[in-house]
Queue: 3 jobs
Job 1
Amino acid sequence: MSLAQEMFAVAPAKGKANLSSGQLKLLAGKARWIYRVSEAGFPTVPSIAITRAAWEALQNQRMKRDNRLRVHWVSCLFRLVGADGQAPQLVVRTSAPVHNGGLMPARTGIPAPVSEGDSVDPSRPLGRAIKEAFESYGYERGPWHGQRSSDDRARQIVLVQANIDDELAEFLTRDPASGALGPAATGRAPLPQLPDECSDLVALLDAKAGRHMNCLVTLERGGVRFLSARPIQASVGAELEAAVERANAGVWTRQNAVNRIDPGSLGQILHPRLSSAETALPIATGLGVSPGAASGVVVFSAEDAARTRARGKHCILVVNETGPADIEGMKAATGILTARGGMTSHAGVIARITGKPCVAGVRNLTVNAVELSCRIGDKDVRTGDPVTIDGTDGSVYLGMLPLSQPNIGGALGTVLGWSDASRTIAVRTNVETVESAQTALNFGAEGIGLARSEHMFFSTERMVALRRMILSEDETDRARALEGLVDFQSGDYADLFSTMQGRPVTVRLFDPPLHEFLPRTDEDIDDTAASLGLAVRALRQRLERIAEVNPMLGHRGVRLAITYPEVLQMQIQALMAGARTASEKLGRTIPVEIMVPFVSTASEVAWVRERVMAIAQSSGLLRSQQASLSFGTMIELPRACLRAGEIAHMVDFFSFGTNDLTQTTFGISRDDAPTFLASYQRKGIYERDPFVSIDQKGVGEMITMAIARGRESNPGLKIGICGEHAGDPESLAYFSRLGVDYVSCSPYRVPIARLTLAQASA
Amino acid sequence: MSLAQEMFAVAPAKGKANLSSGQLKLLAGKARWIYRVSEAGFPTVPSIAITRAAWEALQNQRMKRDNRLRVHWVSCLFRLVGADGQAPQLVVRTSAPVHNGGLMPARTGIPAPVSEGDSVDPSRPLGRAIKEAFESYGYERGPWHGQRSSDDRARQIVLVQANIDDELAEFLTRDPASGALGPAATGRAPLPQLPDECSDLVALLDAKAGRHMNCLVTLERGGVRFLSARPIQASVGAELEAAVERANAGVWTRQNAVNRIDPGSLGQILHPRLSSAETALPIATGLGVSPGAASGVVVFSAEDAARTRARGKHCILVVNETGPADIEGMKAATGILTARGGMTSHAGVIARITGKPCVAGVRNLTVNAVELSCRIGDKDVRTGDPVTIDGTDGSVYLGMLPLSQPNIGGALGTVLGWSDASRTIAVRTNVETVESAQTALNFGAEGIGLARSEHMFFSTERMVALRRMILSEDETDRARALEGLVDFQSGDYADLFSTMQGRPVTVRLFDPPLHEFLPRTDEDIDDTAASLGLAVRALRQRLERIAEVNPMLGHRGVRLAITYPEVLQMQIQALMAGARTASEKLGRTIPVEIMVPFVSTASEVAWVRERVMAIAQSSGLLRSQQASLSFGTMIELPRACLRAGEIAHMVDFFSFGTNDLTQTTFGISRDDAPTFLASYQRKGIYERDPFVSIDQKGVGEMITMAIARGRESNPGLKIGICGEHAGDPESLAYFSRLGVDYVSCSPYRVPIARLTLAQASA
């Protein structure tokens, strides 16, 4: 395309624009809407466009007294002249594909050039405005985008419009909160009186743009003329309503509607959120480890939390870090705020399980539990003071900030329903309680992909039984402790299977990170000693003996099953008993899936498989078809990925635990990462947090290798993903390309996964 | 080969044996020596052999009254009849390739069969003895060796010898302690009077067997007749002396001498060891984390250790676990015994660095530091009681057991010298002090492959400076702390470079596992607070803030360099200053190799490289050729292996840290592994401890992949191994097949590596 063609009328005063395909490609930002509205026949303010490349060439020729391009430019300017033949006053405005703050605001009231020379002279009003408009684009060049960014820069355009000195009116195409079709007020001013044609314009622009738009028109004597438009941010609820409306109106297909929703934005409406975060300033920031916002009065103990809750008041439990003794308090509290810990800390894990917002690892929070006060940043906060936390971004605010409650309205349900039509990968959920399972089913979960059996012990009574087991010194001791556990477990499994109504349930064998389940504070140790009938000193000695230097890499997962086979046996028996009860209740086969965690060798899998199969067979449930059994492994260690071929022979499925796989592949403890992660992101070492979005180049290669080796040796192998990445849209899109059969995420992320996978499959 | 051929004369009474190649292959154990001595012309007791397959076939035919094989057997028995034509009395003995306790002892005085039927009848003396001999072999079948073991079993042989009723004499071919050529006493009885021919037999057998042999002869009226021989275990010192003697005598080539020494056995003479471990019973067993044995009186504190040492007495420091405060005590003690911790615990690391024997993780040791007593197993032990520990196998004994001191005599030096002729892979050492470097040079180290810079701070004075740095709250604080460190470091590096006399020195950037460097006990915290001028409460708060859940996967290695660039800068400046001093002293170029630890992304390497190069360039040392600079990374995380191609572009060398790579590939904390490792080995889950011998199928594939990817993108890439596996013979043989350029191990293992790699290269 010649540079002469890079100056052209987007909406000429007379006739049609008749753009070439090259010119159509140049239509970015406002230029695009002006062109499309004008083409659709709606009266539009005459507008021309010029690219930076053309403008710079014009200037070069001007210096050399070469007038060839100027001829084209002048002819272009003439296309702004209307039927009256009068040279109009002009407006110059930028037209960026993405709006940003530094761009020059529209420059109005520019006199038409008085001569051809005047039309390109940067010391004259028109030339100066164009020059300054281009300059306002700035010039960003990332280290990897040199060439591309330079091309993009040459294609930047500036608009020149005929400035009709009429009344201006601004409105939105849709209500940004509800999504209802406008004209709607912008929020800065009430909606002006508008002629009926504006409704046509709104419908036209909404269909063409498929986005919420801010629209500027002139109200002439003769009627409405379209001047400019730019997209605006609407709430995800509004986007959903609009998408459903467009699909129902036939403007979009249903798949279009599914594709146009940003799955990441759904998080906003699946949890309570701050209504006015823009205006409040956080007093401290930590890690958002369990999403959603919560307001309440500060309490420092489980007892105070329970008391406050009993009085019908919301409270936020504030502690240095939580431990098993705090579970009742965490359940009573509306939100949790801790000074220490990260995403996989006790607080984070329990908060996500119980669905409570939680901010952890607030480094400038100091708790004085004795004086019932704490210091957050530079503020002193006492029991009963109101605070608000946002577990999505880790902010902590003083006072009770207004919250918006989650709204899983009709439009979300409709879009998710449509999404299931194109989705080919199943979405399961990571839950272990009936309550969470019910939430997940409501969100459309198709099964349980990860039931962490040790999480069934998060209650005071059961914790005693569990601690007795962990702290037992020999097999007799342990056998006694196990007796107390088997009944709990059978009942839990029966309830879970019944709730899931025959959908698959994958139970992960016991994998307690010991340090999370043991008493830590003096008080807790005293209580535990009493409940176990042990001397405090004896308990302390046992605790010291089993303390681990690196619990993440310690005596856990399959290692427990092999060193304490009686624990494995108890668990399989409880599972089978639970399946029996559920099968009798539902009158159908219960699909039990047993999963071995933290495997690094095929020999571990063989050892456990042999025992699991023996117990399952001897239960008689498989023969009577009351239960079906599927046996699989978590793949969450690099060595398991390498040996996947050998392991796959012995299993029905792999489920990738991407959290631990990321920890071991990178050699990073997620709990300890906050000390350097911020610095790493600031210095550009990491493009993104590998615990949020899967590291495709490293962890991704591990997974890819394991899938290939696993499927090669066992073509029927089923592949799932059950780490937290299974709720992250970018990671989900990646997993869908690896050919996985299902993903499993927390209940609140099930809708995100359904939508993302529908987009990826389309 | 027909079964008839599987009964044959090994040493016939008359004539030659004339064995077929198939029969030669059947000669295992004693049969082999009898045949070879007889073939060499030395008078030998007539002997025949029969395989289990032949014997069982004989028995089958006997049941069916089929005499075909019996004809061969009888003809075979006739070969025992001497010139006098008398049927001799017979001896039946097993002839196993590997001696074991369950084998039938020689059955003597068996009358010759009176008929052909009698010769195969298992109810008659000869047949019964043969049957019982075969039965005593037992029948072991491992899960993976079914077929092979069944073949081996069929080939087992039993010997029948003519029992000359003369005097027997037993002696050794060499002295088992000194290796001097015999005849030598067996240790059970004084050496009998022997005719001169015995010396010929000794020389003959020593040359044929190339091992220390126990030899049985008959002393007839006519002279000496060889009866039987079996190999015996000799000390490695004796093996070395014998090997040198055989090579000097031309019986072996020098390469033969090198190949015939078991490198693993060298460990016995490179550390003090128990002289009488066979007779003493350990009172407890832990993990041998630093090899060698030590005796001394028990002390419970650094002060007592220093006092005892000052009185010229050896002492063993007994503590729950060691921390930085114990370093002076550890230096004063002769050995260290701890209740907690594993191979990479503070105690283990410091003990290996200082060369002290250490037993750690003794689970049934309880220390009462207040009452100055401890309980080991079921014994109460008090200050001043004598104990002996063996850091090689983890045993703890009551009393002062006699020790043998290391003897790096002439024969070891000779064999190692020969080994260097065929070795193609360089052997470096992991040291950071001048003293250890000198030891390693004496053992033949060709450079330093791993100088752990943080280990240079293991002294009270420097520890204060280091703690100040770690505990600093901001950059100003840290900068002040660093000033105190730079002088120490420059001097240390200068000394190290000077000691190494221009050999390459690889310095690993600062990689302190924080928990090892910080105070833990109340007393230590009080002292540290005082030395840092901090309130105890403030120090405790800082300690809590930087405490890590999983320090192995925490804020360490390259992560420290990136978050605290001032630490990196200090270190490179100190290195350059040290190189300058050493270069001026030695008048030569100092080859400085800088290595970045714990890398997981190429971006980390790029970031550090840019800064290191800038400081090195600005020092002027490279221009003046006072120093040369090589830049590399540790490869010790799975992700670094995966991204090796990208990383290799930016570095001159990779050095594999196999300890951490094993920890992350398996997801096992070495410190915490003892709780399940024993169970894993007992249950056959692991064939061997992956921290002792490299896991070829998992970690090995990681290393192989990294080398391939690294060399593909940088063909000049140098590859080293610096984990503890670099001192393990089996691992070294594996590494040599991967094409590494050098290995680096602790000083005491340098001879083992030199020998193993010479064998592998041959």
Job 2
Amino acid sequence: MEIKIIENVLKLNDEVAQQNRHQLREAGVTCINLIGSPGSGKTALLERTLEMLGSDLAVGVLAGDMATTRDANRLAAFTPHVVQINVGKSCHLDANQVRQGMNSLDLTALDLLIIENVGNLICPVGFDLGQDVKVGMFSATEGDDKPAKHPYLVLEAGLLLLNKIDLLPHVPFDVTRFREDVGSIREGIPLIELSAVTGDGLDVWCTWLRRLCNERPSTDKQPCCEPGAVL
Amino acid sequence: MEIKIIENVLKLNDEVAQQNRHQLREAGVTCINLIGSPGSGKTALLERTLEMLGSDLAVGVLAGDMATTRDANRLAAFTPHVVQINVGKSCHLDANQVRQGMNSLDLTALDLLIIENVGNLICPVGFDLGQDVKVGMFSATEGDDKPAKHPYLVLEAGLLLLNKIDLLPHVPFDVTRFREDVGSIREGIPLIELSAVTGDGLDVWCTWLRRLCNERPSTDKQPCCEPGAVL
């Protein structure tokens, strides 16, 4: 009984996610689902990203958090298309919450929708939201062992980011070990090393986003989670 | 139906947690449940803690992670009483996993059992494991907004730690704002600011642990999660 109910919850989520995906593609909007730990720098990265993309792409953001509107307030300085979703005691965004957030945005005005998931390396991984690509975010201050300890994110993501590389001189972090662990879990997955503070690597990230928008899949049958499909 | 099943799962967990608490107190073992983000420095803190406590207290550790035995391997250099619990795709430890871990330890040889929960600021908060106190851990590299975004941890914990204060000169972090947010959620909760790398603040933390072990509650009716009960 319990397993059946959990299956039903996931099935319902997947159905709504597929509706989200269809609606986004009908509107010509590419969508990424950004997943990382609390404090990995997701909002800081989005501030710099919105600044760098400028008028190249019209970007909307759905910002998930347990509480507060702090992320949306920060991002509202860079785009008018931002919605905060407070999940209370829940540990991830679900497709229905994203649907409600989408309903608050004018999708016809957007090229790209970025879903900033709740800060959590585990629970968000299993919930399809209707994105084209899941982007997994680590940071140098979390230690080099995080991909090995969170293999499911590495397996599900279409791109990995390593943020806060400006702090590498100040923390114990073996970049070679980090890259080897990533490669041993999922050979060939693209990895961009960057710093939202110094701006290092942000050009590569913004180029990746522009390409993703230009090469947006034309059907809603399959999310392009395979690196080969989006790079 | 769904709500009832979730209630039953939590009720069963709480029953096993209460058995764990009873068994630990019968054996004279104080127990803390350490909760923090991935990469907040839980294992690094425990390495230094075990080193500093030395022969003062006999400490056992149950280390939770999705995958790998890296944490237990690191801690085994400092104590023979360490068990790794891999939770797979789960996002927190539950009382039954802790029970199994306890069964692998000789409780009569221990003064203190530290449960290092799975790296996650959200899901572990709601699951009683049988601990005397939940300890919530933040770190300076995660940003000063984390208590405000994760109020349930602040409300449930008997002590908060702010780790990585050695990195404060290199990151945007307003210590005053952090303290004010904590105080506005839960006035009077004790907070220890420390660095597992430089050792700053570790003496205060170890003194807190020694006092907790000395003042261990003698009944198993109530976990001492209130700060007044343990300090």
Job 3
Amino acid sequence: MDFRSDNVAGAAPEVMAALLEANKGDVSSYGADPFSAELDAAFSALFDHECKVFPVATGTAANVLSLACVAPGYGAIYAHQDSHIVVDECNAPEFYTGGAKLVTLPGESGKIDLAALDAQLALGWTGSQHSAQPSAVSITQATEAGTVYSPDEVADIAHRCKAHGLKLHMDGARFANAVAGLNCAPADLTWRAGVDVLSFGATKNGAMAAEAVVFFKPDLAESFLYRRKRGGHLFSKSRYLSVQLLAMLENGLWLRLAREANARARELAEGLGKLPGAKVVWPVQANEVFVQLPTAAAEAMRQRGALFHTWSEADSLYRFVCAFDKTSDDTAALVQAATAALK
Amino acid sequence: MDFRSDNVAGAAPEVMAALLEANKGDVSSYGADPFSAELDAAFSALFDHECKVFPVATGTAANVLSLACVAPGYGAIYAHQDSHIVVDECNAPEFYTGGAKLVTLPGESGKIDLAALDAQLALGWTGSQHSAQPSAVSITQATEAGTVYSPDEVADIAHRCKAHGLKLHMDGARFANAVAGLNCAPADLTWRAGVDVLSFGATKNGAMAAEAVVFFKPDLAESFLYRRKRGGHLFSKSRYLSVQLLAMLENGLWLRLAREANARARELAEGLGKLPGAKVVWPVQANEVFVQLPTAAAEAMRQRGALFHTWSEADSLYRFVCAFDKTSDDTAALVQAATAALK
Amino acid sequence: MDFRSDNVAGAAPEVMAALLEANKGDVSSYGADPFSAELDAAFSALFDHECKVFPVATGTAANVLSLACVAPGYGAIYAHQDSHIVVDECNAPEFYTGGAKLVTLPGESGKIDLAALDAQLALGWTGSQHSAQPSAVSITQATEAGTVYSPDEVADIAHRCKAHGLKLHMDGARFANAVAGLNCAPADLTWRAGVDVLSFGATKNGAMAAEAVVFFKPDLAESFLYRRKRGGHLFSKSRYLSVQLLAMLENGLWLRLAREANARARELAEGLGKLPGAKVVWPVQANEVFVQLPTAAAEAMRQRGALFHTWSEADSLYRFVCAFDKTSDDTAALVQAATAALK
Amino acid sequence: MDFRSDNVAGAAPEVMAALLEANKGDVSSYGADPFSAELDAAFSALFDHECKVFPVATGTAANVLSLACVAPGYGAIYAHQDSHIVVDECNAPEFYTGGAKLVTLPGESGKIDLAALDAQLALGWTGSQHSAQPSAVSITQATEAGTVYSPDEVADIAHRCKAHGLKLHMDGARFANAVAGLNCAPADLTWRAGVDVLSFGATKNGAMAAEAVVFFKPDLAESFLYRRKRGGHLFSKSRYLSVQLLAMLENGLWLRLAREANARARELAEGLGKLPGAKVVWPVQANEVFVQLPTAAAEAMRQRGALFHTWSEADSLYRFVCAFDKTSDDTAALVQAATAALK
């Protein structure tokens, strides 16, 4: 009953099989292997748009290498105050951009409050030598609260970016879960809505360690190769990164796995939501469920073997994340543990 | 006949098997998995010394995170002018240290010339506010020329470091090949000789993508966790990095593989060395062979399917690297191609 | 009637005279001149404590070089959301620290809200590899709102710093005005209250361009010389920086000038405060006055030649800063303009 | 008899007078003062070309802010191995560029050896993800050896820059001495020869602390304002920087002072050159003289009160620098001391 995160899971069998297959024989290194050569085409097909794609091993690398391509050291990046780049990456965005400032914005259920963003943009910092130069907005999809921005919501932010000369980055560590949750075309949620660059996550969704940085405007990627190498993120045996991504895209595996994870989250939400004393606080639109529980009940669940994160001790708020390989039996067991604990 | 680099090879079967085994079940993430928990003990046993060990995925990451722990942004790091950190890491050392200067030193067959190092240290920059502060020396083992520093040679450099308050880093991307070549104890080549921190390479030697940063003085590692994370090098599914390293250490696999690779290099050197018109220019002490050949002969070999790097066009110098999985048949085929080409 | 800032003023005659005097003859450069040699003793006497002092030319340089000595690139610095280092230094703190994060805190009238600080410190980020490491608090004295922290208020923050292993930096761009306003010993407001390093401002208070970084704990200054040089802030003709600071300290000029400026601000506050339609919003404790005025009245004052900043357009809030050389006639003229405008 | 450097001198009377004059009254700050407003026009007239000009207080700031505009963190900058940016700026170039690599080149008498530059450019690093990207060449005028590049020599380097897509920076800390030495138009030595950006030095030549960054291609300056501010190099009372530069340009003061200094150097060279046992080693083309002397003689001169730098202890090589305000009596006194010492 491990619902602490989707990264407690291993990799999907299809990914492991692809790795074994790719292990055969000698191939060129540093991105010149035949698997890496397929990435641009594979993602361009997926997004119905010409993409420039670079594989890296971690979500933080994907995020901060992306951000470094759209914000200089004297720039400002606007992001939700609870976002991963703000609270969970130990200043990696500042490091890779050479010192850009993350301007934090509030917002309900993990989504940037548009009025707060407008207020920041209205400060008119652009062109003032004293001020960090407004450069980019970064949104998370699905958000840290397990919610998703609709294509229209993304476009609302993108319009503001365009109007003020900013780029729009999407941290898609759980992009698959968002697309699965919205049941929309990947294109609708990204470049059609105005996203410039996407961190396409695969690790949480069943890869071993693989993320794709997807540029929808190739000219933004001009310096990427150099930034990736000087970040230490170019794999010599690059085949192993690329083949994971290809395996995820093959036959829609990425969406199939994400739909499973999302279905488990809905089961959890349903099961926990009707228990007396439990309250699901945010819409369950991806693979995460946030539940308020009496502290004693949470403790009792843990004694029964359930693993999950305390999101806010003050609010008795707990997070349950469903990995791609959780089963309905797993969620049922958790609901049972909760039922017992809440008695 | 791919002798371009040891990174054109795949991973050893033992490593793949370990990855498959580690793929089972849920485990804690971000270094709290049971495999990562074994690293310190495994390497401490290997080196007969208390070590603090951190897995990362690339050699560049290992090198530059190490260097960032021993040199500030206003520091100077002394390294061979042909070393990987100087010519092949796209300013990653400068990036991670916050701007330290790599002071390049000449030296025969890939090894730092001691007189050149002495001349630099004699400048007396320490304490001068105008000057990069002497902070560390970095040596490569085995060197880019396929040679190795003996324990005494390492100690010669280490003594100078100690005398001037510098730390000694070893880029051990091919550390296994060096140990195999010298047939010495890992300890003799590192902490006993005065090395402070080692990039222990596994990728070139049969891992998929795994290197260990090994601190022989734990206090130097104080900031490592934060530097690794802000570099984007902390794996969420950390088990996959650590298990590769454990598999390499298990039953001495790392040395067994390196010995094979070295043996192949000796076969090549012997076979090529006696051909008329071919000259092996540096001692073959690890898994690399550098051979001068008439340009036309090199071209003819390539037409016969041999793959290898041109090391210096001006000198008609070519590099042949033997991966762990090359066979005596492979080297024989290359020698045959050379024989035909040189006729 | 130029009340836009204290930096619209020139330098005090005493400072100019000292510069002329220092201009004579050859002296050693780069800090080895006889004026620079006096700084440590002069400030140690002023603060009744052993100090390590470094002159620089700008307030931003003083702030960010200080901060770089107390916070690493993976660190977090807590500061008021309106502070100069947060909104007016174009990411200089991030640049000089190598990427530290400025965590912004709210607070009435320019002072950090203690509960907000406590909430941040209670997050327990220290030791978590995912999180910027809590490293320092920076407070501004006098604040951007023209208020001052009392010695007790400084100590309240310092206690929290000590309890959590943080350093306390004071941006004293208007430190003289704060000391003059409180009529306390400089020591009481700094090291006795727990301040570790102070940016002692002189430029706004009558110097041409000179600030002193004052370390109350000499060991924190270990890397300062190198950081200053690589920031490009070491003057070759260093005498000109140091002599300005000495002139300010001589016979208490710094306090005399600050008292004048503060007196002018009180005159303004009194004069404007009793006008119908005008409201002084924050206590006037230094040399700045913040007044709410009908927009039309502010406009009318400007047409009469009054110069001042709009602090908040939304709140019709205006800032009036009194330089050291403003006279009672100047303030009377401004009040007269306001009186006329408010009719 | 202080010939240690031109920075042991004070400021020229004309500069002090201009500072006093500029001290009157209130003016806008942060570059919006009337003096700063004149800079672009004044330098554009001087160089017979549209220039974008920014004043800063130190030569290091001028150099590294320039370089940061022409080289990214993953870039390579080619410079002479003895140049100020390489050996005397404590990694400021690396800091401001975000980690660019200074590739050092040899060369007689302070000038870059063209063959060595060609060899570097022939490596073909451009576009290789492993390599620092060739971005700029920086030359020093006059050089650290007191020699000057002729306009043709500058053009020789500039052609190479253009052919490889590099920018050309000139560190003109002693630009005035070079122009005076060559008796050429400032334009001939800069943009007409292919220089993109110039650090125009005034401090060593009689200013208190003022240098101008002069962009001959305005689009290169796009980010300068932000880089200057985040470097802490924007003066609040900016009038004091700008008026120094204007005073230097007025009525050709800068050239008049440089001609004086150069004349003194020639006097020294002549006087010392004919002494038995003394040898002037490099052509005296600016205001510096490098002389080989028996160590004992140098010591004897110092005992007679002569101050000068030991350039190379191994070579018994000494440097004598003539500031703008040295007189023929001063040089005669030094020659006399040398004559006595060499007996």
